[in-house]
């Protein structure tokens, strides 16, 4: 058992060195442990000086000291996430007004946008990617920065979002089940709730593994979703969770 624990720690440290931050869900998936075990591993690794514990996971000791380079962020993109981002990109049209959420897949979407559009986001990484797009009118929602998840939040942003009829809002997910879409932070879930209520088209972009995970704060129910983009087809029981008019798009790799 001790050897297995040691090997598990080595894998977590390797991933932390590559990604700079890991959520509890990341660790659960990467080394195949329960949420309680992932939490205990985080406490032990932080105590050993391998990283700094956060409310939602663990970050490297140098996390936040520098902005990750473009090449470093690219390393986070699997072929599946890149394909989903490209599928989402087909829903963006010149002159449109869009919201783009904070997630690795949607960071890839932000990096891929070349049309003259207006983008609202609360994601620091999206803003960095979009800041070099001369055709994009960028609105970065302000407030306090969540250093782990790298998004900004303020109550005033909720009022701003609720008054904008986005042509489409692109949103990720920490977890999903028959009752709705969930997120790790209450403030983040509040942003998603406001966006879901205002957008003409709500597009959720997520890997199907999120159906196997649990998270704390619900952003909206599945009935609010107009389009779901995944890396592979849903099983029939999962499709039945959604409203009859939901559009299902599978990314082509």
Would you write up a description of this structure?
The chain is an alpha/beta fold. It has two domains: 2-59, Winged helix-like DNA-binding domain superfamily/Winged helix DNA-binding domain (Arc Repressor Mutant, subunit A), CATH 1.10.10; 72-250, Rossmann fold (3-Layer(aba) Sandwich), CATH 3.40.50.1360. The protein has ten helices and 15 strands. Strands 6-5-4-9-12-14-15 form a seven-stranded parallel sheet, sandwiched between helices. Strand 4, helix 6 and strand 5 form a beta-alpha-beta unit. The radius of gyration is 18 Å and the shape is globular. The mean pLDDT is 89.
User: What is the approximate shape?
Assistant: globular
Q: What is the first-to-last residue Cα distance?
A: 39 Å
Helix content: 25-40%
Mind telling me the C-alpha Rg? 18 Å
What structural class do you assign from the helix and strand content?
A: alpha/beta
Determine the CATH topology of the largest domain: Rossmann fold
How many helices? The count is: 10
How many structural units, i.e. domains? Answer: 2
Strand portion: 15-25%
Q: Characterize the main sheet.
A: 7 strands, parallel
Unreliable stretches covering 5 or more consecutive residues: none
Strand order of the largest sheet: 6-5-4-9-12-14-15
The CATH class of the largest domain is identified as Alpha Beta
Order of helices and strands: HEHHEEHHEHEHEEEHEEEHEEEHE
**How many β strands by DSSP?**
15
Average pLDDT metric: 89
> Do you know the CATH architecture of the largest domain?
3-Layer(aba) Sandwich
Pfam family, one: DeoRC
GO molecular function: DNA binding; DNA-binding transcription factor activity
Protein name: Lactose transport regulator
Domain HTH deoR-type: 5-60
